[in-house]
Specification:
Layout: H1 2-30, H2 34-46, H3 53-60, H4 65-74, H5 83-98, H6 100-110, H7 119-137, H8 146-150, H9 168-175, H10 181-187, E1 194-195, E2 198-199, H11 212-230, H12 236-245, E3 249-251, H13 263-273, H14 282-295, H15 299-319, H16 326-344, H17 355-369, E4 387-390, H18 396-419, E5 426-432, E6 435-444, E7 447-452, E8 458-459, H19 464-470, H20 474-513
Helix pairs in contact: 1-7, 6-18, 11-12, 12-18, 14-16, 15-16
Region (Disordered): 1-28, 137-208
Biased composition (Polar residues): 137-165
């Protein structure tokens, strides 16, 4: 009897600690001392500085839109503020919230820093998983109270779940195909285990009424975190795989993903990602074919030949007799000319290239092919895609983490584009030195999938032998098709901006002649709108 009573007390204490951690986290995210707010407002007025949500959220490090909105609107009740100033603040804020505020909160919540290298982080993931489960999967209270649910917003990128190691009973069930292991797993009492001298918190059960795709991703994430716990908090790649799955993405590069999805589903997902002809652009192959013969005489001869060809294209352009393919021919020739100069006179000499050297060469090639309305170096109003570039010396574990991070970054970009009305497939890439792979993140049923667009590995040549292979056209075809996809996105975004400006003008007209518009409440959060994003440094 004493042993049972002790176990029950320990279990109750564990539940109380988990509940206390959840409440402490909520306070840390939302609680602001009113006196600090008043002091901040007075200081802004004394300095004649603008009072805006951007400066306010930066000053108090707010990442939740609803929390920030509630506190910011309380400023309008301060007695020392003139009525004209209150009206000006309110009007500017309403306009900003409907327009730029959506993107602002998307990226601000994405920039939250979460340390994933300690056991405490695993416990924090559990606490947030309980909030996430009670909010989306189990609308009724899950022991955290209604306040934890009401504070989540569509623009928040929330960490989600972790798990304790399976019990021996569950292992026996898994080995016996005649027993319904899923129902046992869902209804079993969660267990806790001691790791590194601290008690881990059990994961909440996975509801059985989830869509099939969501359920499989949840189970994959749970298994990854169980393995992470068994390894004593080692293996960050497992954490990253779990975060991708909890971002509603089926990553075809993930380990052991075939255990959770049928072979037919995985094959269909791969086929949906694969782009036929992505590595075989007929214009590229046609333009590069004569260059291979010239290369046999040397790189110098090839460089001179390209200059002559580009001069002929320029003459036709000046005479007004340019052909329909002259522009793309000139771009292709300019890339090869740049590579000839790069091979003959390496900018970094004989030393191994750094990450910055590699990034510069890739950006230079992209810049030769892009249109004028996109930048391959920095983000503008709307980011279109993200490439992760590492030095050739990067180890395998770093490359795996880079891939998982890049998938989540591009999911954030995809969500930001969705909020302005554009549902797009994002083509991205992971690059190591002068080698790279390109893949697509797109919708696949009720989830998203990430898979390669082509089986080829793209490369930038660093010597004459590699240049000869590069002139086959496959690598350059992939690069050009990637730039075209980004260029098309930029055109679509530009069209949406024009429509957005028209809507703004109409709304402004309505506000002048009608009653004051009330900002509608945010839409309920869904699993598809949740991205786990935990960088340690700003991009």
């Amino acid at each position: 009897m004493d042993s049972k009573r002790t176990n029950r007390v320990d279990e109750n204490d564990g539940n109380k600690r988990a509940s206390k951690r959840a409440k402490d986290y909520q306070k840390q995210e939302s609680e602001i001392v009113p006196g600090d707010v008043v002091a901040w407002v007075r200081k802004r007025i004394e300095r004649n500085e603008e009072i805006s949500m951007v400066s306010f959220s930066n000053a108090f490090e707010l990442t939740h839109e609803e929390d920030a909105h509630a506190v910011f609107m309380s400023l309008l009740s301060l007695n020392f503020l003139p009525a004209t100033l209150k009206n000006a603040i309110s009007k500017k804020y309403e306009i900003w919230r409907k327009n730029d505020g959506v993107v602002f909160w998307t990226w601000r919540s994405a920039a939250r820093k979460v340390d994933v290298s300690t056991v405490r982080t695993v416990e924090d993931l559990v606490d947030r998983a309980q909030q996430f489960t009670s909010m989306i999967l189990q609308p009724t209270s899950n022991g955290l109270g209604s306040d934890a649910t009401s504070r989540q917003t569509p623009s928040e990128h929330t960490t989600s779940t972790t798990s304790a190691p399976e019990s021996e009973d569950e292992a026996d069930l898994d080995s016996n195909p005649g027993v319904d292991s899923e129902s046992k797993e869902e209804n079993a009492e969660p267990e806790s285990e001691e790791m590194n001298g601290a008690n881990t918190v059990p994961i909440p059960p996975i509801p059985a009424d989830m869509p099939a795709g969501h359920l499989r991703l949840f189970k994959h994430a749970r298994n990854c975190l169980q393995q992470y716990q068994k390894k004593g908090g080692k293996g960050k790649a497992l954490i990253k795989d779990a975060m991708v799955s909890m971002s509603c993405v089926l990553n075809l590069y993930a380990s052991e993903i075939e255990k959770y999805f049928e072979d037919e589903d995985l094959n269909l997902a791969r086929q949906s990602c694969f782009r036929e002809g992505f590595n075989q652009d007929h214009v590229v192959i046609e333009t590069l074919q004569p260059l291979r013969e010239v290369l046999k005489e040397g790189i110098d001869e090839l460089s001179c030949y390209i200059r002559v060809r580009r001069g002929e294209i320029a003459q036709r352009s000046l005479a007004g007799t340019s052909g329909p393919q002259d522009r793309i021919h000139d771009q292709i020739l300019s890339v090869v000319q740049h590579l000839c100069s790069f091979i003959m006179d390496p900018p970094f000499g004989s030393s191994p290239p750094s990450e910055q050297d590699c990034s510069h060469q890739w950006a230079a090639i992209f810049s030769l092919l892009k249109s004028r309305n996109i930048s391959m170096h920095t983000s503008g109003e709307n980011e279109l895609a993200n490439l992760e570039i590492k030095a050739p010396s990067a180890c395998e574990s770093v490359l795996i983490q880079q891939n998982r991070k890049n998938i989540r970054i591009n999911r954030c970009i995809q969500l930001a584009l969705h909020r302005i009305g554009l549902d797009a497939a994002i083509i991205a890439g992971d690059i190591v030195g002068y080698l790279g792979v390109f893949y697509v993140i797109q919708r696949y049923g009720d989830i998203f999938v990430c898979g390669p667009v082509t089986a080829d590995t793209v490369f930038i040549p660093t010597n004459s032998t590699e240049l000869e292979e590069f002139l086959d056209g496959e690598s350059l075809s992939v690069i050009i098709n990637f730039v075209r996809s980004v260029d098309k996105l930029s055109t679509d975004v530009a069209d949406l901006r024009q429509k957005h400006k028209l809507r703004q003008a109409r709304n402004a007209m309505v506000q002048r002649i009608g009653p004051r518009c009330v900002t509608p409440p945010p839409k309920p959060k869904t699993f598809q709108d949740t991205v786990l994003f935990t960088p340690t440094t700003k991009r």
